[in-house]
Amino acid sequence: MTQTSKIGLRAWLDAEVPNSRLHATAIQFYAGWLKLLANPLAFIGFLVIVLLVVCAAFAPLLAPHDPLTQDLGARLLPPGSDGYLLGSDELGRDIYSRIIYGSRITLLIVVLVAVTAPVFGLVVGTFAGYMGGWIDEVLMRITDIFLAFPKLVLALAFVAALGAGIENAILAIAITAWPPYARIARAETLTMRNSDFIAAVQLQGAGTAHILVRHVWPLCLSSIIVRMTLDMAGIILTAAGLGFLGLGAQPPLPEWGAMISAGRKFILDQWWVATMPGLAIFIVSLGFNLLGDGLRDILDPKKSKS
Amino acid sequence: MTNVDQSTGTGRTLSASFFNRHLRTITGTAFSMAATLFGLLFVTFFIARVMPIDPVLGVVGDRASQEVYDAAYKQLGLDRPLYIQFFYYIRDVVTGNFGTASLTARPVLEDIARVFPATLELATIATIIGVILGIPAGVIAAVNEGRWQDQLLRFLGLFGYSMPIFWIGLVGLLVFYGNLGWVGGPGRLDIYYVDIIPSVTGMILIDSLLAGDMTIFWNAVSHIILPSSILGYYSMAYISRMTRSFMLEQLGQEYITTARVKGLSEAKVIWKHALGNVMIPLITVIVLSYANLLEGSVLTEVIFAWPGLGNYITNALLSADMNAVLGGTVVVGIVFVGLNLLSDILYRIVDPRAR
Fold it and tell me: Which residues 6+ apart lie within 8 Å of A230 measured at CB?
């Protein structure tokens, strides 16, 4: 694929009939990519997330200062000061550098929640939908119970029990975030449970686990991904909220919510200390929301209409 | 709505089977609510058991002798099997005994009764703002689907969903209180007005009106307006989004065409006929958004030093006062589940098709 010329590559991606499974996936991705390019807002969202990943990956190169080193001679400098693009905080740390390093924590939260809650929801939902009967009844009842809880308060209680800290905050968020995925996955499974292709695999002697993993999960993925992207903004906001309350990431970690909390004391005189990390949170969650909104149109055209 | 949508309802008589059916759905709803509450208590009990804080030390302090410790251990029922403890826990919650808050040295339930009106007041004003702005905005967006009004509303919604509420609260304080001086600062009243009027309902806006003290009333308004507007913005984003999609559904129906063909004015078609039918599902949405605000006010209350339930739970958390945390969680959960049930019942009462 890398050896093909530009034009050859495009022709390969535009092909009407795929030659292989890989080719089919590539064509699908390319079509989705073109739709993404056609939707400017979604593309902006995509760029924001790419930016987040770049910041996290190349933090040491992008940040002019160490995020933890204090310099009491350079306390609370306003934005635009020499060497301090976004100003400095109460301990003389460069806010710009701290925001850049903070992207690593945000990305960590996003990735960890994204690999736990949706996967757990997917397992529960597809299993319940596929098995039916009392298993479905019991699992969905439990899902409903979790769905009916007030999320933030429950997350707070979990963090209180487990102890404040970034890992426990992530765990608490994941525990409160999985039920919607279980509902979506179950609904998707119900629509395909009695279809011919599942019957065909059953006749070939495939077991439940095999059918779920190889044949049901892949078809649930697009709805789950859309929901996940739209959820990410909320997850980032909750994590920042926990950090702000002092229950998430602990100082001196440059977590954005905790940075706002520290800057709160100076809000009237040194507004930038609390405002800058808030802007970072806003931009990243807006990015996820824009991308999620666009992905819903791309992956799920029937639902985007209403 | 009255003369177009009756086709489904005509000819129905209130028969015995109808009441039977009604009763069964209510029992079903009540059962699922009981199961949810049971689950809630199970989770809070589980949290209380896995937490690394020793509940005995909270009672006797960390310098107690072994005998005192053991006695307290027994008294708290910790020597019994877990399911017995869980049974006692449920009994305590049902009788309203959440234990004593170590932070205030008062019964948790008493504390919650004291702080809850402040949260209720805030959430109510915010919901009113959300409804007054959200419903017209949603209608306008639906009528102008795809045009700039629609895009603007969608963008406002996306902005709202992306903004950290505690941050916008801080920025709001900075701009409107710090720089412009248009609104009151944190807290429910200026400090020299606190505790002057007698507390009847616990909601200062109502209490000051009851006492006839307009100075305090307007002071309270200047304090509540910013936090409730911020919460109301989120509520508006949600309500307008739902109004929009409900309206689009209605505007495509045939009775709308009929009404237009009959020569009704466009305003009447939209604001009376279509919106009238939208109000039914909207009630559910409004009640749910109210429930969300009760919970979502936690961060806002912290920012605005609002002495409500969210602030209480947060303070309890930070001082590891587990009785207060779990009591608060259970109360919020019960209110949350109760409002869910209420929205369900309201829906059944208002919508003839759901009966």
Answer: A288, A289, A292, A293, A296
